[in-house]
Amino acid sequence: MKKNKRILFLLCISFLVVLVACSKNEKEDVGGSEEALENLNQEGMPIVGEEITIDVFAGKAASAADDWNDVPLLNEYEKMTNIDMNWNQVPVDGLEEKRNLALASGDLPDLFYGSYMPNSDLYKYGEQGIFIPLNDLIDEYAPNIKAYLEEYPEIKQGITFPDGNIYAIPRLRDPESPTSLMDDKPWINQDILDETGMDNPETTDEFYEYLKAAKELSVDGNEVIPFSSVSMDRLFHWLTGAFGVSNKGILHPSIDEDPETGELRFYRTADEYKQLLEYMNKLYTEGLIEQNIYSIEVDHFLANGAEGKYAAMNFFNPKDYFGEEVGGRYIPGNALEGPNGDKLFTSVISPVNSLGHFSITNVNENPEATIRWIDYFWSDEGAKMFFMGLEGETYEETSEGPELTEEITNNPNGLTVQEALAQYIINPGGGHPVIENPEYSTAPEFQPEDLENAENMAPYLIEEPWPFFFYEEEEQATLDALGADIQKYVAEMEAQFVTGETSFDEWDDYVKTLEEMGLDEYMEIQKKALQRYEEGQ
User: Fold this and answer.
1) CA 497 – CA 253 distance, rounded (Å)
2) Contact residues for 291 (Cβ-Cβ < 8 A; gap 6+)
């Protein structure tokens, strides 16, 4: 009897070993069939000899073309490649629910495109073999992506998961372009500045004095609102660098690098952060910040801005949102020097700020052709096509380079440049897995005012902002619970300190509460994630 049990036990072990080996082989065998490879052209166009169809789950922004199955750019690219992309577009509002449903049900597309797949899902479903590793495909079939990752190894590091695999092609901001890396930007109303008789503020003290003086003025009979944006967070974006916190960028809202020790820091308990809150409390309680800033609606902000009420703001290009006449009153604000001599601008994003935009699933029978499809748009010629459209229709080649046609720049139907282009291309709008190319992109951040602002700010931008970190599944589960509670409490207390609802005499109690909420455990997870990132795993 014992002998039979032992034999049964050994057979079970053998079966499990075979099962694991098979599963591993299935995960590693990510290439297309022999038939698919015979149909593939390794370079040039078309990508495949006989036409193929790829089913795509695609996120759709409100500003993007309505039906990507009939867009001039993609129609032309289909002729070039012989690949028919069958686009199933999902509006951003319902994207997360439908994306999760597709993954959970097993009813998978060949490709997830512009779907804002969270890093945690990329890692989880990648390890399960649902998303195939792209490393070898990039190496063999995507020369433009491969060359870019070799030129910027830090970007390759930022998209490689702890198991060594790349599961998605990201949307990238140009690492050489300050305006591309900046998020919102600071602006000063030149007309109001002239009325105060002051110079453009260079320090937090000068900024405070400017806001106080501006508060006493009026614009077209309306009271001036000294300082505002669409959220309090955006006001902090301008000022954190003046107090030496958030020095690794805004993708990590509570951790940075301690400037004295070089160690990871939860800056929301640092003395410098307390100083920042005291400064913001002074601005708010003296009426220098728009008083409904914690509940402000975008439409309300834009309406006030269009009337020229704001003396200072941290937002996007004012001409785009307030119109030429009012928006033209604004000049770039400065990186402010704070009370301890800090002078940085920290509203900066890692080039790898959004990763999950091009993931090939294990049901895709043509992964080589699929990776070649996106690789073309990483070339100079492909980038021009992606961002500017079709030569002769949306742009013309000139001695000074490609220029948009009159129909786009001065549309007879009164459309903006972005609206006119959207009739031909799938950008703007959406998480496209390409590099935001400053030479060809018509995005607002490449307008002259933004370029001037970025040039003014460039010497003070933080270097090497952290991308999002990768977490193991157990770590992610802890962060989803513990981290969410910590961030919620931090946000609540920040508002209470700024508005004066809670006295700074209770600061020590605030810090103690965070410690009791499990801050040490939270930071241990962050330290491990940072270590993995720094080691390039």
Assistant:
1) 17
2) 284
Instruction: Walk across the sheet containing 83-91 and list its strands.
Output: 83-91, 52-60, 111-117, 356-360
C-alpha to C-alpha distance for 301 and 417, rounded to whole angstroms: 23
Q: CB of 56 within 8 A of CB of 89?
A: no
Q: What does the pLDDT look like over 263-314, one tens digit per residue?
A: 999 999 999 999 999 999 999 999 999 999 999 999 999 999 999 999 999 9
d(CA 445, CA 400): 21
What pLDDT is recorded for position 125?
A: 96
Amino acid 208: pLDDT: 98
Q: Which two tokens stand for residue 443?
A: 């995005």
Helices 271-285, 232-239: crossing angle, 10 deg rounding: 120
pLDDT digits (tens, 9 = 90+) for 150-168: 999 999 999 999 999 999 9
- Tell how many helices (H) and how many strands (E) occur in the chain: 25, 16
Q: What would the mean pLDDT of 127-135 be, rounded to a whole number?
A: 97
DSSP letters of 146-214? HHHHHH-HHHHHHH--TTS----PPEE--TT-HHHHB-SEEEEEHHHHHHHT-PPP-BHHHHHHHHHHH
Q: In one letter, which amino acid is 24?
A: K
pLDDT > 70 in the chain, percent: 94
Phi, psi of 384, deg, nearest 5: -60, -45
- Helix (H) / strand (E) containing 401: strand 401-404
Cis status, amide bond into 428, omega within 30 of 0? yes
